[in-house]
Each structure stands twice: as structure tokens, then as C-alpha cells.
Design brief:
Distance between the termini of chain B: 78 Å
CATH class of chain A: Alpha Beta
Strand order of the largest sheet of chain A: 7-8-9-3-10-11
Number of helices of chain A: 9
Shape of chain A: globular
Shape of chain B: globular
Number of strands of chain A: 11
Largest interface: A-B, 23 and 18 residues
Strand order of the largest sheet of chain B: 1-2
Distance between the termini of chain A: 25 Å
Low-confidence stretches of chain B: 297-301
Strand content of chain B: under 5%
Largest sheet of chain B: 2 strands, antiparallel
Oligomer: heterodimer
CATH architecture of chain A: 3-Layer(aba) Sandwich
Number of helices of chain B: 25
Structural class of chain A: alpha/beta
Strand content of chain A: 25-35%
């Protein structure tokens, strides 16, 4: 492990299925505090399902599923989220009927002891584009702006780990660069990130190490180059 | 016409609109967050009216007039709000993930239970409340007297809208409610406890319902029929306004209130037809209502109702033949009363089976099947009474009339899906009910049409039983044949994925429309047979309980199987027949039965037997070591 030493999230032997179709087979991974880990894999490999299963949003079974040394298996998603696990879904799922400021309000949770909580002001410093549109309805925003809002909304919950699902998907290169900045800023704040990605370039720019997922199984882990090479075969 | 009179009439409309808005706003808020259409919302309004009417005199005696009156209104509304909380915790929480049909049935069970509990505790008589102190006078508008209290009600609507707007945009609770209206799962993933949010929303919604009821008492007495009358109107308002939109509910309430006020001048008998026309026009132009979001609400009836077809085994064929033989022999074994009950059961089996075609096979959750049953019944009765045609021709006319009616309304209905469809079908049935009730010259109003007896050759109980068995049996077999025909497969394909069905060349809307008309025709035949069995009909053949009975039969038997609805019809009718003489509170019993189906046996009786058989088959396979 490159960054921290204490494991924040431990996943061991995770299986998940949609109805009768099994999607994940014995997935195991670990994230330490403050590190940025990429979960690489093609479309349909099971990346999103892995993240959702951790958060309790899809039915799953695991030999071990702990966050901050607490078992989170079977907990309601809102309880898991309150422990400090944030999630930014692939489809962003912004509340389009709400303004930017209201979207942030939905995400607001108290910070754990001793940490300065995220405020709209701090987030606007991180995402200057958002600052100018705090009163605007979210359906009047571009895809990139919505992606920023989705991350900012999750940060309002003061998470110690963020599950970031395909943050660079479908975005213009300029915006992708801003996303990379955002991930680095989170790391600087001591927030761990597990991000799912299809493209090696973005993952390489921000992550410390990687896991490779194919057909619902972990096929490789280690450096990004090694994982990319293993998945390419 | 006198312009002053028109102004007064408009003001009357606005006062009704305010009351309607209070009720509908609660319904739409609760729906927005929980995605449950709370059938019992009208019952909550009724309870608010009763509570206020009973409390106000006591409070006015002890607290003084104005203070006592308004305290009673507030206490009534809060008490109803707390009852909403109780309902959320005890019932709704268990059915958030259930198919919408179950949600509608479970909350309708509450309607039945609350109705009987009110009769049990307060009694069936109307309860008149006191008039509002200080607002008993009149103001003069263009030389006409207009009640001050009506003026007050006109103001209440916009005031409540404004307060709700402040609550929804200026408080954290309101922002969470709006966010959850759009995406509940995401709100949960951000750490918000949905259970508390839902409970809070139910309090708010029930509070508004209770307030709407409590504020009615100076205008009209509290009575046990308010609940269904109000909920039907509130459904129309929320559908026109757009489900989940409070502002939409306000606009729709004003539209309807004013339209009814003027409609009564033009068509005094059929004001509800005007309302329906408005609803039809709005839904054709904007299928999701004035301010609703174009999103599919309720994907369909869900797997619990999806008929799975497989060829019958030899045993099942034998059982079916045995069943038919047993029915054929029934008159030999039963006394006269028993034959009548058996005749009723066969007719109801056809009703349930015709509903099966559109729900189980077509995936269209109709909540107004009584419309076609009643249309057939009235068609046959009117044919005999007004046109003096013989029974045989009237029985041929009944399915024709009902089928044409279903085809006409069905053209609107099949444009919708899920909850909108359920509510539109319910509204259609309520409209027809209102027409039958109000158009006294033709339908005989509340008294109905009497003296419609079968032809001489069929007037014997046993002969009529065989006539019913032959006609209903033939209709059921024909419907079953349709289910197994390519048309039935196309209908199921459209149910399981409308998009994919379209893509392989199935005209989804036309297929559904045809099924809707066929189902209506079959129910109409049942209605015709019912008329000649009873010799008389009244508007109750078109009422909501008839629709719900049909649904209950379908679900009690199990909608996943072909035979389920028929078994369910037999079971429920027997239960009804056995229970009714013993207790005056059949509705209470039926309500509890419905709750039991929804909570304990969602696949119905036949479904439960099938599940047992599947489990045994799997066990045998496992014992043999074969792969499942």
C-alpha cells in the first residue's frame, strides 16, 4: 500500500447478482486511508456493481465487508453513508429540479470530530464554475458542471472514502483535467478515493494503484501499468 | 344570464377549489416522495371532518367560541396527521417496494376498515358541525349575498399553497422532500434516513387531508360517504395537475372547481362528465398532467401479477374437466339459495377472468373494471325496459355496449401506463357511476331499474344457472383461447417490454386497446347476466367496491396462473356469502382479507400451491443430484 497503512475499506469474497444473473464473483479489495485506487475494467465488467454493492444498493453477499473496522454488510445505505462512505454515481443523479445550493444542502452531513467540514464556500473554491450558478436549477447545467456538482454534493457529507464511478466518462478534455484536479484535491484533504475507470489515461493521472476487473472477477492488482497489461490480454 | 350570478357562481367554484386543493396537495406530496397513491387519503379527510364536528362543540363550550372552534380544527388536523404517521409505520413501510396494484389495494383496505370503524364507533348518521364563529355572516357582491365563510375558504387555498412553497424551498425538510420526489435512492445514498423523511411526509400529507376535512364542517355535515367521493375528485385533480406537483394540484383544483361551478349551469345532471372531458383532454395533450414530469411512474403491475403460461398437464386438464362437471352437477346438490349463490359465483368468475386478460396478460392495472360490468348491466336493463327487446337480444347487446364503451374510453386509457392508467380507469368508472346516479330520467337514479326478469323459458333458477354457466363458461374459454393465441403472446410481450415489442413489429397500443375492449365486452356480458339474475340494478354495479372485488378475486386466486381468478372468485364469493349474514361489518372483513393477501400471500392461493409444487420439484431434483 502506497499511502496510508490502516485499511479503511475491506472487501472480501463479494458476490452479487441481479435476479438470477450473477454479476460479481468473489471480489476482494482493500483501500487504505488517503489513497486513490483505480478499479479498471471494460463496460459491463462489474465496476459499478462493485461500488453499489459496497454501499448496499444492490443485494450482495460477502465473507467480509468492513468500513473503519465496522461490518457494513446488510446495513441500510443511509447508515453506510453516515459512517463516511460517499458515492458519486456514474449517471451523476443530480436533483435537476433543485438549485445548485439545494443539491449541496441535500448532501450536507456533520463532519467527524476534529475535521473542518466542507462548506459550499470551500467547494466553490475547488470548483469555481459552480460558484457562479449557485441559484441555478441543476437541469440548466452542462454535463461537466453536473459532474462537478455531483462530487461537491458528496463531499458535503464529509466522507473519508469516496466511491467515484467513471468520473471522466463523456466529458470534454478540459473538464476531465478539472476532474483530475478534484481527485488530487480530495487526496490532499486526506480523503481516500476508489474510482472506476475504463480509460487508463485518467486513472494513471490520479491513482496510486489499481485493481483490474473482468467479467465480475478481480483479474489483477498492483501498479496501473501491470493492471492495464493484464486486462489487455 | 345575470352577470352578478355568474360572478357568485365563480366564487363558489373557487371556494370548492380551495377545499379540493387542500386534499389533493397532501395526496400529491405523499405520492411524490413515497410513490404510493394513498387511497385512504379521502378517509383521512373524512376523519378530519368527523373529529372537528365532534370536538368543536366541546371545545367551544370550554374555551369560548372562536378559540374553541379553531382549536378543534387544529387538533383534528394534527390528530389525523398523527394517524398518517401510524399508517406509514404500520403499513406503508412494508409495501414501498411492492407493485402499485398492491399499494392501491392495501390502502383501499384501509378505506374499508376506516369506514366500518367509523360506523361502529360514531354511527352511520351524519354529524353536523357548528358554524365558524365570526364568519357566519354574508357579504354583498353585486347585490347578492355571499357567505363570509366561503370567502375565507377562497383565501385558504392560496395561503396554504404559499406556506407549502415556503416549507418546500426554505427548509431542509422541504428540500429533502423535493429531492426524494425525484430520486429516493440517491437521497438515501447521501445519508438521509428515508424512513424518517417518509414518516414526516405522511404527517404533512395526512395533516393537510385532516385540515381539508375539518374546514368543511361549517359547509356540510361529516358523513360516511365522503371518503370515496373525495378521493375520486382528488385523484382527478392530481392526475390533471401532474402527480407529485403541488402547484399543479392548485391549478387543477381551480380549473375543476370553476368548471364544476359553471358546468352545473349547463349540464346540471352530468357535471362529472365535464370534469372527465377536461381530464381526457389534458391527458391527451400532456400525458403526465399539467406540471408533471414525463417519467414512467410505476413500471407496471410487476411480476406478482404477470401471468406465466404453460400448457396444462394431464392432471390439470382432468381437474378442469372435473371442475366443470362438478359445476354442472351443482343444481342437483344445492338448495335453491345455493343455486343462486353458485350463479353469482360463475358470473363473478367471468368478471375476474376478463380482468385477468388486461392485468395478468396485458399488464394494464385497471382499477375501474366495474365500469364495463355496470355498462353491460345497464345496457341490458335499459334495452328491456326502454326498447322492450327480449332477454336474448339484451344479453347480446350487453357485451356490445360494454365493449364499445371500453373501446371508446380505452383509446385514452392505453395511452397511459402504471399509476396514471389505474387512476384514469378508476375515474372512468366513477364518471359512469355519477351518470347512472344523476341522470334520473334515464337510469332511475339511486333507485335504479327494476323488474328486469329473464324470458319465461329461462325464469327457473336452475335453467338460468345453466344459461349463465353456458354463456360465462364459453366466454371464459374464449378468453383463455385468446391468452394462448398469438394475440395473447403479443400482449404479454408488450407487458414485459413495450419497447422491445414495438421493435419487433407489435403495435403495442393497438394490441392493448383491443384487449381492453375485449375484456370490457366480457365483463359486460357478466353484467347483463347479473341484471337478469337480480331482476333489478342500481348504480352500485358501477361502484368502486365492485372494481375492488374483481381485483381481490384475481389476487386471492393468484394472477400468475390461468385458473387463479376463477378459484379466487369462488373463494371470495363463498367467504362473502358466509360472512355477510353473521356481521354487518363485511367491509372490515374484506379489508383485513385484502391486507392479508398483500402482506402474507402476494401470489394468491393458486400461486401458493404452484410455489409449493415448484419447491417439491426442486427438492426431488436435488435429491437425484441433477442440476436445477
Amino acid at each position: 500500500m502506497s499511502a496510508g497503512t490502516t485499511p479503511l475499506l475491506v472487501v472480501e469474497g463479494l458476490d452479487a447478482a441481479y435476479g438470477r444473473a450473477r454479476v460479481l464473483f468473489d471480489v476482494s479489495l482493500e483501500i487504505a486511508a488517503g489513497e486513490v485506487v483505480a478499479l479498471m475494467g471494460r463496460n459491463g465488467a462489474g465496476k459499478s456493481t462493485t461500488l453499489k454493492a459496497v454501499l448496499g444498493l444492490v443485494p450482495a453477499k460477502a465473507r467480509r465487508l468492513t468500513f473503519l473496522d465496522r461490518s457494513i454488510a446488510g446495513l441500510a445505505p443511509h447508515r453506510i453513508a453516515r459512517l463516511g462512505l460517499g458515492w458519486v454515481p456514474e449517471e451523476r443523479r443530480i436533483f435537476t429540479e433543485l438549485t445548485v445550493a439545494e443539491n449541496l444542502e441535500v448532501g450536507r452531513r456533520p463532519a467527524p470530530d476534529g475535521r473542518a467540514p466542507w462548506t459550499p464556500e470551500r467547494l466553490f473554491a475547488l470548483f469555481p464554475n459552480l460558484a457562479e450558478m449557485r441559484g441555478r436549477r441543476a437541469d440548466a447545467m452542462s454535463g461537466g458542471e453536473q459532474q462537478m456538482l455531483a462530487i461537491a454534493r458528496t463531499l458535503m457529507g464529509n466522507p473519508s472514502l469516496v466511491l467515484l464511478d467513471e468520473p471522466s466518462e463523456g466529458l470534454a478534455p478540459v473538464i476531465v483535467e478539472q476532474m483530475a484536479d478534484a481527485v488530487r484535491a480530495m487526496k490532499q484533504e486526506g480523503i481516500a478515493v476508489l474510482l472506476s475507470e475504463q480509460t487508463a489515461a485518467f486513472a494513471a493521472a490520479v491513482s496510486d494503484r489499481a485493481y483490474g476487473l473482468a467479467r465480475g472477477e478481480i483479474r489483477a492488482s498492483g501498479t496501473l501499468d501491470a493492471v492495464s497489461a493484464a486486462l489487455a490480454v | 344570464m345575470d352577470p352578478a350570478f355568474l360572478v357568485i357562481q365563480g366564487l363558489n367554484g373557487l371556494a370548492s377549489a380551495s377545499s379540493l386543493f387542500l386534499i389533493a396537495s397532501g395526496l400529491t406530496l405523499v405520492f411524490g416522495v413515497t410513490r404510493i397513491v394513498n387511497f385512504a387519503h379521502g378517509s383521512l379527510t373524512m376523519l378530519g371532518a368527523y373529529a372537528a364536528a365532534l370536538l368543536a362543540p366541546l371545545a367551544m363550550a370550554s374555551l369560548g367560541k372562536p378559540l374553541g372552534f379553531w382549536t378543534a380544527i387544529a387538533v383534528a388536523a394534527i390528530a389525523v396527521g398523527l394517524l398518517g404517521v401510524l399508517i406509514e409505520i404500520v403499513l406503508l413501510r412494508r409495501i414501498y417496494r411492492a407493485p402499485e396494484l398492491f399499494q392501491l389495494l392495501a390502502t383501499f383496505a384501509l378505506v374499508l376498515i376506516i369506514q366500518d370503524l367509523v360506523i361502529l364507533t360514531i354511527g352511520p348518521q351524519d354529524v353536523l358541525g357548528p358554524r365558524a364563529p365570526g364568519l357566519t355572516g354574508f357579504v354583498e357582491i353585486f347585490g347578492r349575498r355571499f357567505p363570509l365563510y366561503e370567502l375565507f375558504l377562497i383565501a385558504v387555498g392560496p395561503i396554504v399553497l404559499g406556506l407549502l412553497w415556503l416549507l418546500l424551498t426554505r427548509t431542509r425538510f422541504g428540500i429533502l422532500v423535493r429531492a426524494a420526489t425525484q430520486d429516493r435512492e440517491m437521497v438515501g445514498a447521501l445519508g438521509v434516513d428515508q424512513a424518517r423523511l417518509f414518516t414526516g411526509t405522511l404527517f404533512l400529507g395526512a395533516f393537510l387531508a385532516g385540515l381539508g376535512g375539518a374546514l368543511q364542517i361549517p359547509r356540510a355535515p361529516a358523513n360516511t360517504e365522503m371518503d370515496l367521493a373525495l378521493i375520486a375528485e382528488a385523484f382527478v385533480v392530481t392526475v390533471i395537475g401532474g402527480m407529485g406537483s403541488v402547484t399543479g394540484a392548485f391549478l387543477a383544483a381551480i380549473l375543476i372547481g370553476v368548471l364544476q361551478a359553471y358546468g352545473i349551469l349547463i349540464f346540471p345532471e352530468i357535471t362529472l362528465v365535464v370534469v372527465f372531458l377536461l381530464m381526457a383532454i389534458v391527458l391527451v395533450v400532456r400525458p403526465y398532467g399539467l406540471l408533471g414530469k414525463p417519467e414512467p411512474i410505476g413500471a407496471g403491475p410487476g411480476a406478482a401479477f404477470a401471468l406465466t403460461l404453460r400448457p396444462w398437464t394431464g392432471v390439470e386438464n382432468a381437474l378442469a374437466i372435473l371442475g366443470i362437471l362438478a359445476l354442472a352437477a351443482a343444481p342437483l346438490l344445492l338448495d335453491a339459495y345455493g343455486v343462486t349463490v353458485a350463479t353469482e359465483a360463475v358470473i363473478l368468475a367471468l368478471v375476474a377472468f376478463s380482468l385477468h386478460l388486461i392485468i395478468g396478460v396485458g399488464g394494464l392495472v385497471s382499477f375501474g373494471h366495474a365500469a364495463w360490468f355496470g355498462l353491460g348491466a345497464y345496457g341490458a336493463a335499459l334495452a328491456v325496459k326502454s326498447l322492450s327487446i327480449p332477454m336474448e337480444a339484451a344479453l347480446a347487446l350487453a357485451p356490445l355496449v360494454a365493449g364499445l364503451g371500453a373501446a371508446l374510453f380505452g383509446a385514452f386509457v392505453v395511452r397511459l401506463s402504471g399509476i396514471y392508467l389505474a387512476m384514469l380507469t378508476l375515474a372512468v368508472a366513477q364518471i359512469l357511476y355519477a351518470v347512472a346516479f344523476q341522470w334520473v330520467e334515464v337510469t332511475g337514479g339511486d333507485n335504479g331499474i327494476v323488474g328486469v326478469w329473464p324470458a319465461d323459458w329461462a325464469s327457473g333458477r336452475i335453467v338460468y344457472f345453466y344459461l349463465v354457466l353456458a354463456l360465462a363458461g364459453a366466454a371464459i374459454l374464449a378468453l383463455r383461447r385468446i391468452m394462448y393465441a398469438p394475440f395473447g403472446y403479443a400482449l404479454r410481450a408488450a407487458r414485459d417490454s413495450a419497447l422491445r415489442a414495438e421493435a419487433i413489429g407489435i403495435a403495442v397500443r393497438r394490441t392493448r386497446w383491443l384487449a381492453f375492449a375485449l375484456s370490457g365486452a366480457a365483463a359486460g356480458l357478466a353484467g347483463g347476466l347479473w341484471t337478469f339474475l337480480k331482476g333489478a340494478i342500481d348504480p352500485t354495479v358501477l361502484s368502486i367496491p365492485v372494481s375492488v372485488d374483481a381485483l381481490a378475486m384475481l389476487l386471492l386466486g393468484g394472477a400468475q396462473t390461468v385458473i387463479g381468478p376463477i378459484v379466487g372468485a369462488g373463494l371470495l364469493h363463498m367467504m362473502e356469502d358466509q360472512t355477510m349474514p353473521l356481521t354487518d361489518y363485511w367491509r372490515l372483513v374484506l379489508g383485513l382479507v385484502l391486507l392479508a393477501i398483500v402482506l402474507l400471500a402476494p401470489r394468491g392461493v393458486v400461486g401458493a400451491i404452484e410455489a409449493l409444487r415448484e419447491a417439491r420439484r426442486d427438492e426431488t431434483r436435488a435429491a437425484k443430484g441433477a442440476p436445477p
